[in-house]
Design brief:
The complex is a heterotrimer. Chain A is mainly α. Chain A has 12 helices and no strands. Chain B is mostly helical. Chain B is built from 11 helices and no strands. The two termini of chain B are 23 Å apart. The N terminus of chain B is likely disordered. In chain C, helix 4 packs across helix 5, helix 5 crosses helix 7 and helix 7 runs parallel beside helix 8. Chain C is an alpha/beta fold. Chain C is globular and about 65 Å long. In chain C, a hairpin with a 2-residue loop joins strand 1 and strand 2. Chain C has 12 helices and 12 strands. In chain C, the strands form 2 sheets. Chain C has an 8-stranded mixed sheet with strand order 6-7-8-3-9-10-12-11, with helices on both faces. A 4-stranded antiparallel sheet of chain C has the order 2-1-4-5. The chains are: A mainly alpha, B mainly alpha, C alpha/beta. At the A-B interface, helix 1, helix 6, helix 7, helix 10 and helix 11 of A face helix 4, helix 5, helix 9, helix 10 and helix 11 of B.
């Protein structure tokens, strides 16, 4: 009960953030954005026809009213219809979000688990060759653009010039084996790129924890290295680690999905967003931006609650 | 008798920068990275001065020529010399990287210092809110939004990058300023009646320069990496060519088995980014006040 | 003379730093008898903490290591033990407590967890047995309402109480030797006195030997039987505490004693200090390490390092130690 109240309070403080995001996006995309009148009007439209279209599109209403409508859409989750396909935006989202999640989640989870594992190895052997090898690999991983990895992996694993084991594009998933076939290469790409950044960050956190006084105390009382690492270091390190994982969720899901889906032709939120960007499909863009902002605030709240639960020093006030 | 290895000529300078330079010089990877970056810089300057890479757009070559004496790395689908394009792209990369790095770091430094100096009062709250908002907007969408708003201005990409990359710098500077604020030299400055503007800009901000320098290098790398993806999405470089544009073009070509465009652009990019990362790491280690010891 | 519990001989510990190899301690020797409290005194950087860490094999191993020398505990040589063997000793036969009670305990586990871990590991107890024993120990060190407070987290206790918890934890397996590295330095004066009293009392009751590392001569006077004075990585004087205070032999000891602020008949124009600073261990001059700060230093001092000479209970490493007409208090029969 206390937690719910706390969450509500935090959500209220997050509202200015949501307002800020939606306001700026609205300003940029809709107000300053492309004027659809002439597209719809066609050539040789009369001034009356133009005025009529403008009225339909709502361009003749005051700015704040239009912004207010956007907010209403956000709250009711009803964004109207896509400019390019005419489909209801909420349907599009319902259809595509699960696919994006199914696509990104394995890579996200694996990338972090492997990152933590490698970081544990590196931190435990810090200063020695295994540590340097892992850190060297991380720098290389961080230096390769995600796009390059995607293109290269597609060539290597999917195309006829490479191994050709996996499908080049698409998402014809009807059973679990199909799923594995379509998700493997994107997962490999995601893990490859994320691993460098993750390992470096997690190693830094672990090394910092290893230097703490209470770790020295544990050793001074005879704790074996495994216990020191897992009981004393990892639990304390989990706080910054999980914080980072949680904060990367909005970005991984939206931005990561965007590249993979557009390149592999997978019909998820990312591809829809990509199409919306290239065609200037405002309803879709408004929906995606608004929901991402809300997701970000939710993550902030969850993260705070997580802190309270894990760190006994922090109270719920 | 205590045995010590005869030490190399030790630094006389005790300042943060003097010691940092000494430390940095001894980091072989960092020096190697810096050397490579300088080579790239020379290439970029050469393009800018008109010495080479000038034929990047001429379409006189045969389609998809293999690497050879006429076209060192072959040609692309419309007969342009890949090597020339890669060389020219070096200039683009530095343009994007330097402009974004310098401006976003400067912006982040100033706003971060203001936020830190007035921490927990309204300027801080406002700047923190702004940072939160910018962090919450997905980057590619934001660039798209700016591109829309500016009606496809060729600098839309730069502006979008600067507008999003300043936040990390600002957070770091804000944290540092909050720490510095409580140091006695600030109290002393106030006590002799220095105006706040001077205290912030002449006394506190210079103590954050090491943060700004490291962040500038990190942002440089982020900028050129982001440009690749933005160009692929059609939101990047408009006139001229960049490695991102080359890679975007190459997506068609690799379907047909022609990899030279892709591999060239990727390799050029990778080497620069890797070198810069090594340089940035070494710089960070050298400037870390905890590690710079007597 | 009973056999010493701990015997350190010619211990040398080296650290590799950016500027070269440094000997943090360079030939340190001393003994501890069962049931006695030995003070290791000196200013920051003299090597006293390194000495205590070396005894338990806790020198961080890059960059430090024990180069040579011997540490015999109860007849058994400790240098050269494997990590696994050391772990059986740590917290059991030899325990250590540290300077910063605020950070020495893990903030995310309760006191109960941290204390019972040690007992389960070393005494093979069940959790329940260990918990009862831990509560006993908390009562012993003077923690009020121990059965309830054992479930507290470290941040719910004051610094003085946390240090007592550390002491309780350290003594819970009945070690023969307790290494206390500046245990009261981070506490305020009143708490300091309380914790020291507690330590002295426990030591009397349990018969544990204690090595008390400190820079504070007041602590030495209060809690120690004998003291070893260290300077720049070497032992310069060793004596029973009464002797040390009444008849300091080494000029450094003399200087330390003179610089303790105290209430005098007349006000002095300045607080007496020892002029100069501790030498850079990477650039040691030949001869005595104290030469730059000593009023008696002569050519001999600048040429030859004085060896530690033992005379009865007192040892001094100086070419020109103070000599006294009356016999030393500890040598009077």
């Amino acid at each position: 009960m206390e937690i719910l109240q706390y969450a509500l309070r935090k959500f209220i403080t997050g509202i200015p953030l949501i307002l800020g995001v939606t306001f700026i996006s609205f300003l940029l995309m809709v107000y300053f954005g492309p004027d659809k009148t002439y597209e719809l009007a066609g050539k040789n439209a009369t001034p009356e026809q133009i005025a009529e279209i403008r009225h339909q599109l709502g361009y003749d209403r005051p700015f704040l009213v239009r912004y207010g409508e956007y907010l209403r859409e956000l709250v009711t989750l009803d964004f109207g219809y896509s400019d390019s396909t005419g489909e209801r935006v909420s349907h599009i989202l319902e259809r595509t979000i699960p696919i994006s999640l199914a696509l990104i989640l394995p890579g996200f989870v694996l990338g972090n688990l492997l990152g933590i594992a490698l970081a544990l190895v590196a931190a435990h052997h810090r200063g020695r060759w295994l540590d340097k090898l892992i850190m060297g690999g991380s720098v290389v991983g961080m230096s390769i653009s995600f796009l390059i990895v995607i293109i290269a992996f597609q060539i290597i694993f999917c195309s006829n010039y490479g191994l050709g084991w996996f499908p080049v594009r698409g998402w014809n998933v009807y059973d679990f084996w199909d799923y594995l076939r379509y998700v493997t290469v994107p997962t490999l790409a995601t893990v490859f790129v994320a691993l460098g950044y993750n390992t470096r960050f997690y190693r830094a956190v672990l090394v910092e924890e290893l230097g703490r006084d209470h770790v020295r105390t544990a050793r001074a009382f005879g704790a074996p290295p495994a216990e020191v690492l897992f009981k004393h270091v990892l639990k304390n390190a989990m706080i910054p680690i999980i914080t980072r994982i949680m904060f990367s969720i909005p970005f991984v899901v939206v931005s990561g999905a965007l590249l993979i889906e557009s390149y592999f032709g997978i019909p998820g939120v990312g591809l829809v967003t990509y199409d919306a960007i290239t065609t200037g499909d405002q309803p879709v863009l408004k929906a995606v931006v608004g929901l991402t902002a809300v997701l970000f605030v939710l993550v902030l709240i969850l993260n705070d609650i997580f802190y309270k639960l894990v760190d006994p020093r922090v109270s719920l006030q | 008798m205590s045995a010590t290895a005869a030490p190399a000529a030790r630094p006389v300078s005790e300042s943060l920068w003097g010691k940092a330079w000494y430390k940095f010089r001894r980091d072989r990877f960092g020096m190697a990275g810096l050397a490579v970056v300088l080579v790239y810089l020379v290439i970029a300057l050469g393009v800018w001065l008109g010495l080479w890479g000038q034929h990047w757009s001429s379409v006189e070559g045969p389609m998809w020529a293999p690497p050879g004496p006429d076209y060192w790395l072959g040609t692309n689908i419309i007969g342009q010399d890949i090597f020339e394009r890669a060389i020219y792209s070096t200039k683009t990369a530095f343009e994007v990287g330097l402009v974004v790095a310098v401006l976003s770091t400067a912006l982040g430094g100033v706003l971060g210092a203001l936020a830190g100096y007035w921490s927990n009062r309204w300027p801080d709250e406002l700047i923190l809110w702004l940072m939160g908002v910018l962090d919450a907007i997905p980057f590619y969408l934001f660039v798209a939004a700016i591109a829309f708003a500016l009606q496809d201005n060729p600098y839309a990409m730069h502006i979008a990058m600067i507008a999003t990359f300043w936040t990390t710098t600002a957070r770091l500077v804000r944290g540092e300023v909050i720490k510095l604020k409580n140091f006695e030299f600030v109290e002393a400055a106030r006590a002799i009646g220095l105006p706040q503007r001077l205290i912030i800009f002449r006394h506190i901000l210079p103590n954050t320069f090491h943060i700004l320098l490291v962040q500038a290098t990190i942002v440089f790398v982020s900028a050129i990496k982001s440009e690749v993806i933005l160009s692929f999405l059609g939101l990047g470089v408009k006139d001229g060519v960049s490695w991102g544009v080359m890679i975007a073009e190459s997506t068609q070509e690799v379907q047909a088995g022609h990899f030279s465009n892709f591999v060239t652009a990727s390799a050029f990019l990778f080497v620069l980014v890797m070198a810069f990362n090594l340089f940035s790491d070494a710089l960070q280690d050298a400037l870390d006040p905890r590690k710079v010891s007597a | 003379m009973s056999r010493p519990l701990l015997s350190v001989r010619d211990l040398v510990v080296e650290f590799s730093t950016e500027r070269g190899l440094v000997r943090a301690i360079d030939g340190v020797s001393f003994d501890i008898l069962p049931g006695e409290t030995l003070g290791l005194v000196g200013e920051s950087g003299c090597g006293k903490s390194v000495t205590s860490l070396a005894i338990l094999g806790l020198i961080p191993s890059p960059p430090g290591r024990i180069v040579s020398g011997s540490i015999r505990f109860d007849g058994r040589e400790l240098t050269g033990l494997s990590e696994a063997e050391y772990r059986r000793i740590r917290g059991k036969a030899i325990s250590m407590i540290f300077q910063e009670p605020m950070t020495a305990l893990n903030p995310v586990y309760s006191i109960a967890t941290q204390m019972t871990d040690v007992l389960v590991r070393h005494q093979g107890m069940t959790r329940r047995q260990a918990r009862n024993r831990a509560i006993e120990m908390l009562a012993l060190v003077g923690i009020p309402d121990p059965a309830r407070r054992i479930d507290d987290y470290p941040h719910q206790m004051s610094g003085g109480m946390r240090q007592r918890v550390m002491i309780a934890m350290a003594l819970s397996c009945n070690p023969r030797l307790l290494l206390a590295d500046e245990p009261t330095t981070a506490l305020d004066v009143t708490t300091q006195a309380q914790v020291l009293d507690e330590m002295v009392r426990l030591q009397d009751e349990l018969g544990t030997s204690v090595v008390l590392v400190t820079h504070d001569l007041g602590v030495v006077a209060e809690a120690c039987d004998r003291a070893v004075v260290m300077y720049a990585g070497k032992v310069v004087e060793e004596a029973p505490v009464t002797c040390l205070f009444e008849q300091p032999r080494h000029p450094y000891t003399e200087g330390l004693l003179a610089s303790i602020p105290r209430i005098r008949e007349e006000k002095l124009p300045e607080l007496p200090t020892i002029p100069g600073t501790v030498p850079d261990l990477l650039q040691l001059p030949p001869g005595c390490r104290f030469q730059d700060r000593c009023s008696r230093a002569d050519d001999l001092c600048r040429r030859e390092e004085p060896a530690l000479e033992l005379r009865g209970d007192i040892a001094v490493a100086c070419h020109h130690p103070n000599r006294y007409d009356q016999p030393a208090p500890c040598q009077r029969s």
